[in-house]
Amino acid sequence: MAAPILQEYTFEHHAPSIAEVVDDLIVATGLLIEFDTQPGGIEGSTIWKIRSLSAPMQLVIIAEGRGQPAYAVGYDPFCKWTPYLAGTLQWVFAKRGGACAEEIPEWAGRRWAEVRKTWSLG
Questions:
Q1: Of the residues 31, 78, 111, 119, which has the maximum number of CB atoms within 10 A of its CB?
Q2: DSSP tag of 51
Q3: Binning pLDDT at 50, 70 and 90, where does residue 66 land?
Q4: CB neighbours (10 Å) of residue 83?
Q5: Residue 63: is its pLDDT beyond 90?
Q6: Among candidates 99, 70, 105, which has minimal Cα distance to 86?
Q7: Of 118, 117, 121, 113, which is closest to residue 52 (Cα–Cα)?
């Protein structure tokens, strides 16, 4: 198995709740998305698994508590459509004041039904 892709998002004041983020993902993507919460293994951190019920896409988000509000997002780079969900999550975080080292993809924030027609990753 390949190493997962891991991206870190920092927020100046506070990180948005994952429920708000999932609501934004649903609106932006047009997909049915659900999430569940699990306690993390590092000093009480929280882990969320976000998955689409409409297409095989899944992300893992970990709350990082190193002073500045931050989330780490991981996913399997070999899941054909998951990079779409990760890119759109990056767009959602940016709209909510998040910063990431990676550039936001040009298709991020567009609905899956539109992007899927020309999707070539995977």
A1: 31
A2: E
A3: low
A4: 19
A5: no
A6: 105
A7: 113
